[in-house]
Structure formats: C-alpha cells, structure tokens
Amino acid sequence: MASDTEQTGEDSGLSKAVWHYISVGVLWLGLVFTGVAFERLGLTTSYLTGLLPGEVNTLKAQISEYESMNQNLTHERDQAVKTSDTRGLELSKLRRVQRELEAEIEALKVAPAAMTTPSAS
Q1: How far apart are CA 65 and CA 62, in angstroms?
Q2: pLDDT in tens, 80-103
Q3: What global pTM score does this model have?
C-alpha cells in the first residue's frame, strides 16, 4: 500500500509539472496573439506616444523629412526622364535631317558630273 501512495504522489507531481508548462505556454501564446492583434488594429501607437514622446516625435520628423526628400528626388527623376526623351527625339530628327542633307549633297555631286560628260547623241 505504501508503494501505491508513493507512486500516486509522484504521478500527481509529474502531472502538475506538465500542466504548469502547458499553461505557461498557452499564456505566452495568448500574450503574443494579443500583441499582434493590438499592433494590427493600431492600438499600440497611442501607448508608445505616451511613453516615449521625444523619441516618437523625432522619428515622425525624420519620416516626414525623408518623405519630402523622396518626393523631390522622384520629381527630379521624372524631369530628367522627360528631358532625356525629348533630347532623344530631337537627336533622331537631326540624324534624319543629316541623312537627307547627305543624300542631297551626293545628288548634287552626281549632277555636275553628269552634265560635264559628253552625250553620245
């Protein structure tokens, strides 16, 4: 009988330890899921602003500065692309005109040569 009570006491202690670890795991999972839910709903922003006002305001100022710099760079990039496209079109027009002028020059060179050669008639 004494051995039965000792074994039951050990089983009870082991059972309590297992349930303790399971309950601690469930508690941590609940805390993690609650934190994720608060973050997704945007409820943590007000808490962080209240706790760390200086750091949050500094970060907000940096974000707005970077956004304005990004807008300026985007605008400058768009202007550079437009300028590049315009210059490319002008260059293609000038090359076409150059080819036409070279063709006319060749035609003018051939015309005096044809006039100076005697005809066989």
Answers
A1: 5
A2: 999 999 999 999 999 999 999 999
A3: 0.42
